[in-house]
Design a protein that fits this description.
This protein is about 10% helix and about 40% strand. It is mainly beta and about 140 residues long. The radius of gyration is 16 Å and the shape is globular. The protein starts with a strand and ends in a 6-residue tail after the last helix.
Length: about 140
């Protein structure tokens, strides 16, 4: 297991998705992952400004709080407050999906996330169409 040290930005709840941001001074900043691929998950509550040790285990199965009702097998992304949200039919955003859930859950439930980073295909189609890219090029 690898370890790193970081400073917490904002109060963080247990079982939420996290990422490391660029530091300004001192240690890297640990915050909710609500804008892209998560790097870690919180295993306990953390307080703003707290210095913490991040244990990096390489697990592909994480317990994470659902931000809405989820169904087993749904592709999910890290959204508001580091919670899991489901990709919707024809939804163009977000582009970065972090895996799928292994069981049904209601908002607030802690569910099993099977990490499998991927791009949202609807978003890719939108970008390639806007750029005028075709399979022939």
């Amino acid at each position: 297991m690898a370890k790193m040290h970081a400073v917490v930005r904002g109060d963080i709840k247990a079982n939420r998705l996290l990422k490391v941001s660029v530091r300004q001074d001192g240690l890297p900043i640990l915050r909710y992952a609500d804008d892209g691929y998560p790097h870690f998950r919180s295993s306990k509550d953390l307080s703003d400004g707290q210095e913490t040790t991040v244990n990096i285990s390489g697990d592909f199965i994480w317990k994470v709080e659902a931000g809405e009702e989820l169904k087993a097998g749904e592709a999910v992304y890290a959204g508001e407050g580091g919670k899991l949200f489901a990709r919707k039919v024809n939804d163009k955003t977000p582009a970065q999906l972090c895996g799928y859930v292994a069981e049904d859950g209601k908002e607030g439930d802690v569910v099993t996330l099977v990490r499998n980073m991927q791009m949202n295909g609807n978003w890719i189609v939108e970008v390639t169409d806007s750029l005028g890219v075709s399979d022939d090029e």
